[in-house]
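LAB NOTEBOOK - FOLDING QUEUE
OPERATOR: T.R.
BATCH SIZE: 2
PURPOSE: Compare the predicted structure-token outputs for two unrelated chains run back to back under identical settings.
PRIORITY: normal
REVIEWER: second-year student, initials M.K.

ITEM 1
FIELD SEQUENCE / FIELD STRUCTURE:
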Amino acid sequence: MEEPSSRRVEEAYRELIENASAGGYHLNPDRPFTMELVRSLLVNQERYGYMACPCRLADGQRERDLDIICPCDYRDPDLAEFGSCYCALYVSADIAEGRGQAGPIPERRPPEGQKRAGRENTDHPASSGLAYPVWRCRVCGYLCARHTPPETCPICHAEGDRFDRFM
């Protein structure tokens, strides 16, 4: 497998900054550290066809790895509780502005063999009385009512398979 070029890593870095900023998020200000994470995301993109978190073991099957495709399902709870995500690519405003540092984050991903979030959420009644099912983006929480989830989240740009049926 060929390593991504420094030009491609820089392009991906700029895209991540743009998307993070548009969504109110911040990337880690330690540029060498962050560039290595971006390079690793691109390696996983080439290896698996999706940007699996470089700090977790990917299964190589997209359906099983949906929760760890960057930005992962655990980013927001990690940011809220610890100020950074598990791999420290995304950080709080305090860390981004030099008023803190990213520290260790406990793993939130369920151990192998436990059920991971799927497209159907059975916590809600099957019949909601709505004309269309409601879909929720697992990355940012965006909700939409339509027959199928959108191809791409209009808020965070996560792909359509990152949506769960909400109602």
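ITEM 2
FIELD SEQUENCE / FIELD STRUCTURE:
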Amino acid sequence: MADKRDYYEVLGVPKDASADQIKSAYRKLAMKWHPDRNPDNPEAKAKFQEASEAYEVLSNPEKRQRYDQFGHEGVNFGPGGFDFSRDFSHGADFRDIFETLFGGGGGFGDMFGGMFGGGGRRRHADPNGPEPGEDMTMTLEIDFDEAIFGSQRTMELTLPEQCPECGGTGAARGAKRVTCPTCHGNGQVIAGGGFFQIRQTCPKCGGSGTVVEKPCSKCRGSGQVRSPRSISLRIPRGVDTGSRLRLSGKGAGGLRGGPPGDLYVVLNVRPSDIFQREELDLYVDVPVSPVLAALGGDVEIPTPSGIATAHLGSGTPNGKLLRLRGKGVPDLRGGQTGDLIARVVFEVPTRLTTKQRGMFEDLSKSLDSSNFPESQRFASKVKVFFQHKEKLGG
């Protein structure tokens, strides 16, 4: 026991670590040192086993209490030390961790089912029975206007359909299914060796345990052919980039009379020439004459529901924000509509005539510093800055 490292040190967590911290630490170590990721590496194998032993103790409140009180003697695994097949009281935790790390499905689900009980060989579906079609996903680019107002689209797609020649069986007429020569009917093959072996779905038969004796010439044994299809899609108001629309039964066709899968359309919204969007709020820059801003007056602001009129008081500064409540993006889930925020942006007049230039010159002569309070405040801040510079010897 003296040569064993402290379990908290092994996982790299403090002694008061929470259950989530312990699980997260083990997850990272398992990802790093798993033997299948480090083939023919005895050090990785040892570190993986050490981390697994530490996790088994510290993830069990009773064992952790004994370990904290008595050390390794309190959780003695007996002759031969830690054994994967014997002392796991947290098999479900390990199954969850490994399915997260390596993906769910046959391999690790079957492995841990056999290791901790309650599993056994996976049951395979009837290879001659109906099989549902797969779900399909596609990306669709839409205009900003469509995202705000909604639209109706017709998409021309080519999707897998049940082969009309073989009815989705994949077999030529009169042919039958025979035992898979790769897995010998088990539906699974074993990968790896030594310390860790993994059962995986057979790549030859896809887990069914049988293969087609003579493939269909039209679909080449797949049971499916690709066919053109027109699909209508309604884009609701308020969608955004990343929104996912589900079309039930519009995915890949099923096999042997099975139902079709679903089609998921992921939207990508093109930028607007006018607005910028942040969640349900819209932002727009509104060009305003400095003369109108100085004297005050009305400006027109575009919104999804039409042109809105806002009044500017005299002396409105450049960059002033105007909030129009409920003039933004409609909520996709039926909640409150967002706001529209308009920013006043001064547009300096160009291509002045001689007369207009003279008028501006006369106006400039009539103005003094009191007409520009912001410039005065800025000049004061600059003066203080350089005074500090002199004091600091800069």
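REVIEWER COMMENT (ITEM 2): DSSP finds ten helices and 15 strands in the chain.
FOLLOW-UP: none requested
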